[in-house]
């Protein structure tokens, strides 16, 4: 029987050891609501949220013995704590109310643990006034013999009625929880009276106050007419240039600038840019316009307003004169040669005249009845090729200058087969034919004149 008892005791101890060990690093959440009732004379009021009640969780684990976690309920009596999962003793308290201590509350890791509590108080302990949770600096105020106040990070002054002597140190940075005391009159007339509920010294770097922005606003115009959708740019100059009387071309030297702030103008040409204090160069741009002057240098101060008009000039499209063309004219003729005999040159009708530029055909035309052709060509170097079936093809290279008129006559020999014999009297026939053609041409020219 004794062995069985010892075995049970050992098992119980082992079980307790397992249950009362908390896994450090793995957390769980416990939350809930604290309410209160007033129980004067046996009459219990309807439960109401109890703000700023203190919640303390003390670990029952052997490896975290004595470690505690605390928080306060918010204005709706709610609380939430994130702690290593395990077994805890929880204490809920508030001055003027009965405290509650619950032991062996298990905070599980796989689910959210919810515990609600209700405290009982008297009518004199019913909460009055708001609660604050702030950070600030303890200051010694030299008024009426001197006292200590707290200047919060939210630029509010608080007059603590129960500040502990350990915290009466000028310049001490603290975080605190307090209750506003409304019905209190002080001779100091400084700050909001509060009752300190919790206070703790902290050592953290206070960020420097962010300066208030200034503003640049104005209009972008062209000949006093507003320009919409123009881009306005404010370039922040680096410190080394802020005191120099220099203006840099923003479009070519963006690397000089630390920050750029932009805005687009509205239908009335207006713009507005909020920006930190400093020296800026201001310009505006829009396609088809250019700045009427150099970029404007502006000093922006805190809470200042600069009203500026930026003038643009519209680009005028340059008139580019059309290049003057050259004129090429001429006559294409033909002749026949056989041994010592030849036919005088005569106009060649329907001959093909082709104009080539850089090895590519540019234009072409056929000669008229008089063998004439004409082209209007840009300046340049051309190759003129004249051809017709049963005639040799001739090419000529010419250079044409702007406004120049040039004549180019080409004679295409007729290809007579070598085995073809001349008939008797060929010379007389050729002479008569030539004279006849010349007579016809002379008559036609006289008629035209």
Task: Kindly describe this structure.
This protein is mainly beta and 449 residues long. It has helices at residues 2-19, 239-242, 426-448, and strands spanning 27-38, 48-49, 54-59, 68-72, 78-84, 86-93, 100-107, 113-114, 117-121, 131-141, 147-152, 157-160, 173-180, 192-201, 214-222, 225-226, 231-236, 259-264, 270-275, 278-285, 289-291, 296-300, 305-314, 326-338, 341-342, 346-347, 352-357, 360-366, 372-377, 380-387, 394-400, 405-407, 410-414. Strands 24, 25, 26, 29, 32 and 33 form a six-stranded mixed β-sheet that branches. Strands 1, 2, 5, 8 and 9 form a five-stranded mixed β-sheet that branches. Strands 10-11-12-14-13 form a five-stranded mixed β-barrel. Strand 24 (326-338) and strand 25 (341-342) form a beta hairpin. It is elongated and about 150 Å long. The model is unreliable at 1-21 and 248-255 (pLDDT under 50).
């Amino acid at each position: 029987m004794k062995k069985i008892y010892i075995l049970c005791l050992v098992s119980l101890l082992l079980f307790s050891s397992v249950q009362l060990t908390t896994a450090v690093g793995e957390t769980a959440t416990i939350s809930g609501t604290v309410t209160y009732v007033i129980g004067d004379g046996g009459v219990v009021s309807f439960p109401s949220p109890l703000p700023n009640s203190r919640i303390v969780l003390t670990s029952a684990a052997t490896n975290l013995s004595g470690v505690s976690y605390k928080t306060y309920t918010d204005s709706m009596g709610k609380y939430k704590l994130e702690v290593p999962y395990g077994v805890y003793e929880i204490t809920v308290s508030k001055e003027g109310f009965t405290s509650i201590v619950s032991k062996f509350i298990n905070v599980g890791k796989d689910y959210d643990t919810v515990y609600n509590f209700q405290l009982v108080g008297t009518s004199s302990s019913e909460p009055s006034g708001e609660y604050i949770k702030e950070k600030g600096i303890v200051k010694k105020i030299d008024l009426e013999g001197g006292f200590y106040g707290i200047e919060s990070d939210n630029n509010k002054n608080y007059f603590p009625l129960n500040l502990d002597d350990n915290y009466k140190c000028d310049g001490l940075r603290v975080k605190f929880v307090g209750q506003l005391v409304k019905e209190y009159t002080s001779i100091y007339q400084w700050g909001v009276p509060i009752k300190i509920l919790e206070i703790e010294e902290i050592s953290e770097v206070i960020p420097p106050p962010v300066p208030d922005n200034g503003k640049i606003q104005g209009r972008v115009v062209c000949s006093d007419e507003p320009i919409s959708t123009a881009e306005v740019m404010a370039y922040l100059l680096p410190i080394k240039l802020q005191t120099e009387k220099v203006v840099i071309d923003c479009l070519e030297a963006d690397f000089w600038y630390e920050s750029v702030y932009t805005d687009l103008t509205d239908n009335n040409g207006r713009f507005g840019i909020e920006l930190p204090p400093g020296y800026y160069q201001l310009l505006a741009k829009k396609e088809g316009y250019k700045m009427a002057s150099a970029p404007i240098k502006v000093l922006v101060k805190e809470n200042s307003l600069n009203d500026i008009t930026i003038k643009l000039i519209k680009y005028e499209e340059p008139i580019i004169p059309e290049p003057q063309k050259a004129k090429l004219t001429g006559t294409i003729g033909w002749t026949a040669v056989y041994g010592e005999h030849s036919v005088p040159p005569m106009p060649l009708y329907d001959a093909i005249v082709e104009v080539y530029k850089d090895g590519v055909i540019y234009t072409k035309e056929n000669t008229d009845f008089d063998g004439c052709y004409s082209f209007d060509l840009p300046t340049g170097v051309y190759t003129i090729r004249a051809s017709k079936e049963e005639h040799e093809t001739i090419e000529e290279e010419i250079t044409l200058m702007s406004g120049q008129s040039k004549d180019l006559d080409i004679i295409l020999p007729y290809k007579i087969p070598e085995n073809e014999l001349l008939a008797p009297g060929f010379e007389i026939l050729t002479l008569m034919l030539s004279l006849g053609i010349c007579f016809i041409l002379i008559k036609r020219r006289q008629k035209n004149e």
